[in-house]
Amino acid sequence: MTERRTGTRPSILKPGHTFASVTDKISSIVLTKKTPAFWWIGFFVSFLFWMLFLGAVCYLFARGVGIWGINVPVAWGFDIINFVWWIGIGHAGTLISAILLLLHQQWRTSINRFAEAMTLFAVAQAGMFPILHLGRPWLAYYLIPYPNTMALWPQWRSPLIWDVFAVSTYATVSLLFWYVGLIPDMATLRDRAKRKGFQILYGMIALGWRGSAMHWHRYETAYLLLAGLATPLVISVHTVVSFDFAVGIIPGWHATIFPPYFVAGAIYAGFAMVLLLAIPLRKAYGLQDFITSRHLQNMAKIMLATGLIVGYGYVIEAFMGWYSADKYEQYAIWNRMTGPYKHYYWSLILCNILSPQLLWFEKVRRSPLALWLLALVVSIGMWLERFVIIVTSLHRDFLPSSWGMYSGTIWDWSLFLGTIGFFLALVFLFIRFLPMISIFEMRSLVPEAEVAGEPAASRVVPETPS
Amino acid sequence: MSQENRSLPIHPGGESPKYWRSLEELAGTPEFERFLRGESSEEILAEATGLDRRDLFKFLGVSFALAGLTACTRQPAEKIVPYVRQPEEVIPGGKPLFFATSMTLSGRATGLLIESHTGRPTKAEGNPLHPASLGASDFFAQASLYGLYDPDRSQTLTYLDEIRPWPAFLGAMRLALEAERPSRGAGLRFLTETVCSPTLVAQMEDIAREFPAAKWISWEPVNRDAAFAGARSFFGVDADVLPRVDRAEVILSLGADFLACGPGHLKHARDFAARRRELAAGGPGVRLYVVESSASVTGANADHRRPTRASEMDAFVNALAGALGGSGVAGGGSAFANDPFVTALVRDLSAHRGKSLVLAGETESPAAHALAHAMNAALNNWGETIFAIDPIEVKPGSQLTDLSQLVKDMNAGRVSTLVMLGGNPVYNAPADLNFAAALEKVKLRVHQSLYQDETSVACHWHVPAAHYLESWSDARAFDGTASIVQPLIAPLYDGKSAHEVLAAFSPSPERSGYELVRATWQKQMKGDFESSWRKALHDGVIGGTAFAPRAAKPAIAKANPAEITSEPLEEPPSRERPAPSAPSSSLEIVFRLDPKIYDGRFANNGWLQELPHPITKLTWDNAALVSLATAERLGLRKEDLVDLTYRGASVRAPVWIEPGLPDNSVTVYLGYGRTRAGHFGNGSGFDAYRIRPSTTPWWGSGVELAKTGERRELACTQLHQNMEGRELVRAATVEEFRRNPKFVYEHEKPLAPEMTLYPHYPSDTYAWGMAIDLNSCIGCNACVVACQAENNIPIVGKDQVHRGREMQWLRIDHYYGGDPANPQHFYQPIPCMHCEKAPCEQVCPVAATVHSAEGLNDMVYNRCVGTKYCSNNCPYKVRHFNFYHYSTQFRAPSMKMLANPDVTVRWRGVMEKCTYCVQRITSAKIDADIGNRRVRDGEITPACAQACPAQAIVFGDLADGESRVSKLRRDPRNYPLLEELGTRPRTTYLGALRNPNPALKVAVSTEFPSTELDRETGQK
After folding, report:
1. A261 in a domain, yes or no?
2. A with B: how many residue pairs have Cβ under 8 Å apart?
């Protein structure tokens, strides 16, 4: 609506598209016989790292968590850093899908599908770490409340138990949301697929979708309900994750600002990852018509906003450290800034606070390359943030006698890079086999879908042609 | 079921049935009536269980399915071998038995009670009846169990590396003896370590009767040569001295580490701690001055410590003696004459005549010893705080002279048969004697030792030695008290005791150690021998064998001490004469015994290798220690590799900075760099013996230090020894304490009980608690190894320590305070605090660490999945994690016998920590339950408290207001660590007191500036 009023912003769909052209364009990526070379190369490289991940996990299970750099006092290292990092990345998809849906932000349409997929894949990476980081991973089911003869239940006061529920609920709802959103497109692919196997496969996934008014009606209800359900989860997951630290007693962890600050950080990281993926993809598949500069700019603005919240978090953290008049808190902050890990801290400030200020400039927001680089910087920055929070708080806590140092080993890095490979491999499989942009929702943006007096796509569902 | 139903009988008329099918029918129960009426069993079931049939099956199904999951737990395989015949007194799986025995180190015995589980010795405790133990033990004794089961021990008798039977050895010795007989043993030499065993002495005397020309030489790299020479020059005869620390109010240690090492150190530590506690009780207490050229535990406990270059020690002692004697003969030209420290010290000592004590260390010169004796005489201390007794050692001469003579004889071809009983002279003889080359010239070389070590490989015959826990012997304590060494277990390998090897040179070579020891005492014990013998074995001491103090005060005591110094010594041991004071900028080297692995004999003992050094907290390595100023002057950083060259020999050593060393002085510890110690000892550290000459065994001037540009990582367990201004160890001077008895709360306020959000759980049972008196603790490390032994704590190796993964449940934190050039030292043992509001318990997701009703913070190993969250959230960082499967990693099969069966051996991936020795608590509670009473105060002693020579750790029931620990809790010095966090620890500390001389105006300070020490060494 806004673009019509001002008339200056780039549109969210290039003019000239019709229902058919939209459907053709998006479905052809999946159904085309020729898989592009860059896909093969990209997938192969990702696959190699995926295998590195498997190797690292096998060695981990065989030897124990001693292969990592963790120690006492720093008993959490890359494992939890990566967990929080991936969970953070897994925030953008559901945020885009659910919250922006409820807020009637139509520009979400072209990016929500793969943002959701990315969310799922990121949450999948994150979800493995709580198990991998256990000393005895084969007993991970102890964290699940199941009836047993010893009448033993999990210890409900532990934030790790809250994590189990928060993350598994989030993963389940995100998966459902994504899947429900896929159903109409699956029917489209089923109908357009030439090969028998794909017809059957997509047919099964489409659950017998015929596009009847009743289907659309139920679909819309279900989708809205799921959006409503997912919305609080976007906030709750990272809030609960932040409790892992905020509930702890360690100076640098024990802070009430953590929940909002973590949620903002997660959205920040999530959008950075969406940009990181969207910019090359739209270029590679020529999707500039659908993922327009407007999309990129909007995401950049969200990044700027959340980045500022995160920056505020840092400032308040430092302020509260001083203001608390608690010598341990004061030292924790001082140690972050001037201690042996000061380079991490200042790199984090550079990555997460200073460089995103470039987004104030429209020129930067309009340049996909600049945005991509900034997204990369922010992703690194958010990883550093978790490193700083976890490692620098733990390595020097109350008793100087127990102070120590931490650094990751080759296995820490293997696992980290391995999950990136795993994630990218899943992304490559997704873009090859599923429509990365919601076809039917894009169709609703086409001028033909416009009903008199209303701009197109103010409703989610287009009118069924009578 | 209502009452109404019950009154409705099934048989009208109210009579009970004539015939009945079941008791239920006869009784007419309502259930039966309903059954008869045809109500379905399902309804009855639903009523009984609250479930309907479908729900029941659902639950059953789920339970079955989930029950299968438990199969995912890996259970260690266990083999059970039953006794075929029940041994006497042993209850399998029941209570352990304790046997008294003694462990000797450098000839002096410490009485021990060894815990034996079904025939396996597992733990050493002190023998309360033994004068050198008084119930306490040191880490050597604790770790000796590890040595017993060490798989690297020599296991077979060999001749030129080939396995031979014992009779073959006896035959060969017989032949050799016959060859020696014509010369009456002129070519026969016996080389032992310092030995005070009456049986061995008797055996030697027997051999000497048969072979009068044979010689017996004793050699240990740490010996009392200087002490004996000093005593000889002072008394005119050989003597040992017996200090009575419990009677002294002012003690001056001249390099004597009497609290942690040397004869009677456990007793001295106990007496010293008792006197320190007296300070808090208002008594006179004690003031300790330490003048030393290195860093020692005793120095760390001093009220005034004075780092003094080794080359200036004699001048210092001279100045002091001169000032004390009053004539100023020796003090005249000395730089120390007008030193305010000396002045204050002299005044303080003079004010405590008969109540002071001057001690010289084994590393000081004979002159210093003689002057220390003279100062004690001038202060009227003889007969009050110090006594002279006959020497414990049979050969109180100079071991170094004897060894040099032996080497000369060997080189001259005068030695045809050399029998070495224990010892490792090839490794630890002074480098310039070149013992190994001389040894080559001996025709028949025999070595009996626990390991096939550097000396064994240079010999023809190697006889594996029996461990002291495997053999019969006898020994004397520092005061002469004799005790029997009785075996706890048959030799694990073909080990032979020294007595059995020596028997080979007697007319009856097959006599067992048991017979030999009994024979010795049969001659000496009066009355019924069997009952005396049994009593000696049971008590662990032979009553009335302590050497009587020489009644008369030394005649010379009345003489002016200054005269002694001006007199030339009787036997001037010129080699000990200090070189004319070298220019203070030239670097001097100080050799010291390692405070963990001793002279190198314990190099393969994993517990001792991994034990943090009491001051530097280094493990698995020795280092070249330098002071901060010296490091700065030479541009050295921690872990820099340097070449130390002294008199042509050179070693490569990593640098470590130790504030409080004298400047321009390098301290190196002996005992490392072994090549044939075994799996752990080989290659750990550098061999300082290679630059230790016979002329100056303890120090030397003019060492060259050259940087190599390389670095060697050292595994330190405490990278930060600076309290950072935090109120961790709270200490005050006695004056401050008298002024403000609650000085521990000078800066912090006590936390009010209501300052918590958590509910208070009332306890109607025991409330276990611990109080650790920092005023008593001397930081000796005995508790650390005792805990390790009691609780099956694995060792993890240098790499893992370097990564910050050491497992010792109890650690002793060491902090510096005050002046970096001469800091004050503070120790703080840190076990689990057993917080009442434990942060660890709250964050464990699986309830693997939970609170017991008695206030213990229990670890449930079975339940632990290893999230490590508890460790992160522990403010004291007392939790230790099995990052790898440590319990088997370094555990050879023989080591399994070492494990305490009352304590779980932990698996990989499990968190563990101090339990207050819950197995001992439970055992005492069972005893109390059987007696239908409460556990008495003092009935439970955790391993740390039991080993502690200073009695600094007190454990007990806080619910009992009269228990010792409750009383300590009410002490004004009592404070919890990190109280402001509200964790309500059950372990609390009592503030330390120091008793500085007001004239010296030294305040107790726990503040320490940030220095080079704080530089992060590269812990991975």
Report:
1. yes
2. 195
Q: Do B66 and A147 make contact, defined as CB atoms within 8 angstroms?
A: yes
A121: CATH: 1.20.1630.10
Of B866, B872, B910, the CB nearest to A248: B872
Nearest to B813 among A139, A149, A401 (CB): A401
- Compute the nearest-CA separation of A401 from chain B (Å): 5
For residues B466 and B154, what is the distance between their CA atoms, to the nearest angstrom? 9
Residue A11 lies in a domain: no
Residue in chain A lying closest to B867 (CA): A134
B737 in contact with A, Cβ within 8 Å: no
Q: Please state the rounded mean pLDDT for residues B601-625.
A: 93
Q: Which of B828, B865, B875 sits opposite A139 (nearest CB)?
A: B865
User: How close B501 comes to chain A (CA, Å)?
Assistant: 47
Is B845 at the interface with chain A, CB within 8 A?
yes
The domain total for chain A is: 1
For residue B272, how far is the Cα from the chain centroid? 17
- pLDDT at site A22: 75
> Is A309 among the domain residues?
yes
- Residues 6+ away with beta carbon under 8 Å from B326: B560, B562
- Across the interface, whether the CB atoms of A399 and B978 are under 8 A apart is answered yes
The conformation of residue A390, written as its DSSP 8-state character, comes to I
With a CB cutoff of 8 Å and minimum separation 6, the contacts of A186 are: A202, A205, A206, A207, A209
Domain ranges of chain B: 1-39, 158-218+396-476+482-539, 225-392+554-566, 589-716, 731-754+765-1012
The CB-side HSE value for B533 (13 A sphere, CA atoms) comes to: 14
Helical residues (DSSP H) of B326-387, grouped into ranges: 340-350, 366-378
**Residues in CB range of B584: below 8 A, 6 or more apart:** B309, B663, B664
User: Is A3 a domain residue?
Assistant: no
CATH class of this structure's domain B731-754+765-1012: alpha beta
CATH code: domain B225-392+554-566 is 3.40.228.10
Q: Is A60 on the interface with B (CB under 8 A)?
A: no
- Its domain, for residue A412, covers 29-449
Instruction: Report angle CA A316, A318, A319 to the nearest 5 degrees.
Output: 60
Cβ proximity of B154 and B452 under 8 Å: yes
**CB–CB of A73 and B864 under 8 A?**
no
Higher pLDDT, B851 or B327: B851
Name the residue of chain B whose CA is nearest to A164's CA: B845
> Nearest C-alpha of chain B: how many angstroms from A172?
22
Given CATH 2.40.40.20, say whether it is the number of domain B589-716. Answer: yes
Find, in chain B, the residue whose alpha carbon is nearest to that of A142.
Answer: B846
Residue A419: half-sphere exposure toward Cβ, Cα within 13 Å:
25
What's the CA gap between B443 and A416, in Å, rounded?
66
Fold classification of B158-218+396-476+482-539 (topology level): Rossmann fold (3.40.50)
Alpha helices per DSSP H over B918-987: 918-930, 943-947, 964-969
Whether the CB of A394 is below 8 Å from some CB of chain B: the reply is yes
pLDDT of A84-122, one tens digit each? 999 999 887 788 778 777 877 777 777 888 888 898 999
Would you tell me how many other CB atoms lie within 10 Å of the CB of residue B294? 27
DSSP B273-289: HHHHHHHHHTS---EEE
* Nearest CB to A135; choose among B844, B881, B1019: B881
Sign of the Cα torsion B145, B146, B147, B149 reads positive
CB contact under 8 A, A154 and B725: no
Test A143 with B865 for CB contact under 8 angstroms. Answer: yes
**Is the pLDDT score of B554 beyond 70?**
no
Per-residue pLDDT of B663-681, as tens digits, reads: 999 999 999 999 998 888 8
